[in-house]
Specification:
The chain is of the alpha/beta class. It is built from 16 helices and 14 strands.
């Protein structure tokens, strides 16, 4: 048997090799000369509690040292994200849906709709970090909404930038830590959420409810409004995104771009201008189909009811209906902004050369099962919309197989006519086979380690099955083909013990849960100490500050007026 010293040495060598590869990718992304590699570059990084890369069957990468030409035929990519948008209630997923989304419905009718797409974690920051990196939360330390996202983790923005793409982000991505770019050349706006460690979860004090936790004010105060913090953010997000497209077509029309536009709606608070609220009447708003009494909730749901301050505080039918009506209106608001982006693409002559991808970070329970917001693995919280619109490349259709948003990184790279570096850790798998009508993967792995949990809460979705497991207190098995509403937990059924044992064995093989639990605790404790220290004395904010050079805006005396007007006009006369 291999000695412990030899085992640890091998682990260290693998980690060093992976670090070197990340540096190589970043150097290329930043236009720096690549360093010579030695023969020691071999093997894959193996994570100490998750194991080797799950999908080693990715196509081989292009030769790393070969210069990648600027190919103008590469498509532009417009990636649009919504926040907390529950897929099961949307019109492209539910025939009886009353949600009005004409623009997204058109994209769905002309594109490829993924019917069973999931987030890798049902919370904003962990889900987003995993989405942009293609790695599961435990691989990258994305434990909660204040987890540090390390600067040396490659993202799809790094890959595409290294291929000659202009990469930009407009709107929310909830990056925490000093690096607020993560491969994007530009962030057109600041983020709506803080970049510090103030929202770190504390498993050392499970009974303490911090003031920043969700509460029920979003439901109790739901209804129409003229202006909100969320509207300020999304109006700026779309304005800056459209301006980016105008600037692109005027200044860099031959260079491909990847523009990520990330709105915060329909995330709570549930309030929206009357223009969108009044698209619906109270009478047409369906109530939750399957309310579950407190006494019948699973243990994790019980903790969530206490986290959101809903325990022993029943909501009235009027409260629930008003919140859902506001949420539906917020979905219609997001759709109107998608319409603005589509119009700008068309006006700029970019529509035919741009692949549009729409998805989200997680869903919202919206009162189903008596729960609100996210933080669980039930369908309303975990399933996200996913649509790829590229009619000239892919036939319209629907994909029934289960996929994850972590699959977007290798998909974007392949859409850009390249390959990921197969030597680097990656959990996502390309969606290209699905898009091309071929057989693709049918599996989602999920991890949750944030508020409401007391130890890691895992999910495996494969075929008709969904398995939810927490080492201490939760074991749920659902057959979503026969029970799409997840009403019958089969974990205790005698007829399903073989399936259950198979999933339990897979969990044991895939994760070292005690080691992961300790890693989460260590991270929480470090971040609490650092955050407390950084609040003392002079504050240095990590929040992104977009730069605007006013000397180059509009009319300035050092810029020839005729030349300015000629360059600013599109199309040119």
């Amino acid at each position: 048997m291999e000695s412990l010293d030899g085992f640890l040495c091998a682990k260290a060598n693998n980690l060093m090799a992976a670090t070197e590869r990340r540096i190589e990718l970043f150097e290329k992304c930043l236009g720096l000369r690549w360093r010579e590699r030695g023969a020691e570059d071999k093997g894959l990084f193996t994570h100490p509690w998750v194991g080797a890369t799950i999908c080693p069957c990715l196509p081989p990468p292009l030769p790393i040292e070969s210069p990648l030409p600027m190919a103008t035929q590469r498509p532009h990519i417009l990636f649009i994200m919504a926040d907390q948008m529950a897929a099961p209630i949307l019109p492209m997923y539910q025939a009886q849906s009353v949600v009005k989304m004409p623009h997204l419905s058109r994209l769905a009718a002309e594109g490829v709709v993924f019917e069973s797409a999931y987030c890798p974690s049902p919370l904003c920051a962990p889900s987003r970090f995993s989405l942009v990196s293609g790695q599961l939360p435990s691989k990258i330390g994305a434990y909660d909404n204040a987890a540090d996202f390390a600067a040396d983790i490659p993202t799809y923005a790094h890959y595409l930038r290294s291929l000659g793409y202009r990469t930009a982000l407009s709107g929310k991505m909830h990056f925490c830590g000093p690096d607020q770019l993560h491969g994007y050349e530009e962030r057109l706006t600041s983020d709506i959420y803080p970049a510090d460690y103030g929202w770190a979860v504390n498993w050392d004090e499970l009974e303490v409810r911090p003031s920043w936790y969700h509460n029920m004010s979003s439901v109790l105060q739901a209804g129409p409004s003229v202006r909100t913090n969320q509207l300020d953010h999304d109006e700026e997000t779309i304005f800056k995104a459209r301006q980016y497209l105008y600037d692109h077509v005027r200044n860099t029309p031959d260079q491909p771009f990847c523009l990520t536009v990330s709105m915060t709606h329909p995330h709570d608070p549930y309030t929206i201008p009357a223009e969108f609220y009044d698209l619906y009447s109270d009478a047409e708003i369906p109530m939750p189909a399957h309310p579950i009494a407190q006494a019948e909730q699973d243990v994790h749901s019980t903790r969530l009811l206490k986290v959101i301050d809903l325990w022993d505080k029943p909501m009235t039918e009027g409260d629930i209906r008003r919140a859902r009506r506001s949420y539906f209106g917020s979905c219609s608001y997001v759709d109107s902004k998608i319409g603005e982006l589509l119009k700008t693409l068309k006006d700029c002559g970019l529509a035919d050369d741009t692949i549009i991808v729409f998805s989200g970070d997680h869903g919202d329970m919206l009162g189903e099962r008596g729960l609100w917001y996210k933080m669980h693995w039930f369908e309303m919280a975990a399933r996200v919309p996913m649509i790829v619109h590229a009619p000239s490349r892919f036939k319209p259709g629907r994909v029934a197989a289960s996929v994850s948003t972590i699959d977007l990184l290798p998909t974007f790279v392949e859409l850009a006519e390249s390959q990921v570096d197969a030597r680097l850790p990656l959990d996502g798998r390309s969606l290209l086979p699905h898009l091309q009508g071929a057989c693709g993967h049918d599996e989602v792995i999920g991890e949750y380690m944030a508020e409401g949990s007391k130890t890691p809460l895992m999910m495996i979705r494969r075929g008709p099955w969904k398995f939810i497991y927490s080492k201490d207190d939760l074991c749920m098995l659902f057959n979503l083909q026969s029970d799409p509403d997840e009403l019958k937990n089969l974990a205790q059924e005698a007829d399903h013990q073989e399936t259950l044992e198979g999933f339990l064995a897979e969990v044991a093989a895939r994760w070292d849960l005690p080691a992961l639990h300790q890693a989460v605790l260590n991270s929480q404790r470090r971040r609490r100490l650092v955050y407390s220290a950084l609040t003392k004395g002079k504050l240095t904010s990590w929040d992104h500050q977009p730069f605007v050079d006013a000397s180059q805006q509009y009319m300035r005396n050092h810029i020839d007026l005729d030349d300015l007007e000629r360059r600013a006009r599109y199309p040119k006369p």
